[in-house]
């Protein structure tokens, strides 16, 4: 058994990560799950939250995802994200602005479809703000 697992993070616009890593923790819909080499195969939906990539015994990268799907095998973890943003690339002001825009869209929703869309964006925006606040605390 190898001591690393292949991790790929794919967003609609591009492949963000494709590396051999020690471990990855993914925000699954049923709870966070860690993937190490030799993991049992499964598929999971991904909720808004942070993917933590472990390298050299510590978290090396943190990436916020808005949702998506994950496939795990004994050698690989692939996440197909609806949206992915490195936490190094977003600040608190941007996250707060996104949340305000989502709140306004929710207030302005005129029908059920608009409300459902706005509610989803509110959930994502709140999760992003929490992720940024946690990253700021170190």
Give the number of DSSP strands. 10
Instruction: Please give the CATH architecture of the largest domain.
Output: Sandwich
CATH fold descriptor of the largest domain: ATP Synthase, domain 1
How many structural domains can be distinguished in the coordinates? 2
Structural class: alpha+beta
Instruction: State the separation between the terminal residues, measured CA to CA.
Output: 33 Å
How many alpha or pi helices? Answer: 2
CATH class of the largest domain: Mainly Beta
Low-confidence stretches: none
- Spell out the CATH superfamily of the largest domain: F0F1 ATP synthase delta/epsilon subunit, N-terminal
Largest sheet: 5 strands, mixed
Strand portion, in percent? 35-45%
The string of secondary-structure elements, in order, is: EEEEEEEEEEHH
Q: Whole-number average pLDDT?
A: 94
> Largest sheet, order of strands side by side?
2-1-9-8-5
Report the helical percentage: 25-40%
Q: In angstroms, what is the radius of gyration? A: 16 Å
| Morphology call | globular
Structure description:
The protein is of the alpha+beta class. The protein folds into two domains: 5-87, ATP Synthase, domain 1 (Sandwich); 91-137. The protein is built from two helices and ten strands. The strands form two sheets. A five-stranded mixed beta sheet has the order 2-1-9-8-5, with no helix packed on it. It starts with a strand and ends with a helix.
Q: Which descriptors would you attach to this protein?
A:
138 residues, 10 strands, single chain, alpha+beta, five-stranded antiparallel sheet, 2 domains, 43% strand, five-stranded mixed sheet, ATP Synthase, domain 1, globular
């Amino acid at each position: 058994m190898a001591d690393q697992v292949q991790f790929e993070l794919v967003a609609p616009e591009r492949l963000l990560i494709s590396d051999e890593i020690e471990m990855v923790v993914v925000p699954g819909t049923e709870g966070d799950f860690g993937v190490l080499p030799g993991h049992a195969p499964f598929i999971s939906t991904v909720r808004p939250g942070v993917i933590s990539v472990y390298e050299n015994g510590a978290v090396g990268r943190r990436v916020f995802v808005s949702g998506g799907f994950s496939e795990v095998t004994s050698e690989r973890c692939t996440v197909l994200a609806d949206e992915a943003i490195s936490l190094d690339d977003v600040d608190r002001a941007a996250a707060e602005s996104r949340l305000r825009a989502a709140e306004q869209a929710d207030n302005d929703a005129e029908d059920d479809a608009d409300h459902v869309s706005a509610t989803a964006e509110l959930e994502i925006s709140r999760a992003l703000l929490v992720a940024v606040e946690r990253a700021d605390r170190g």
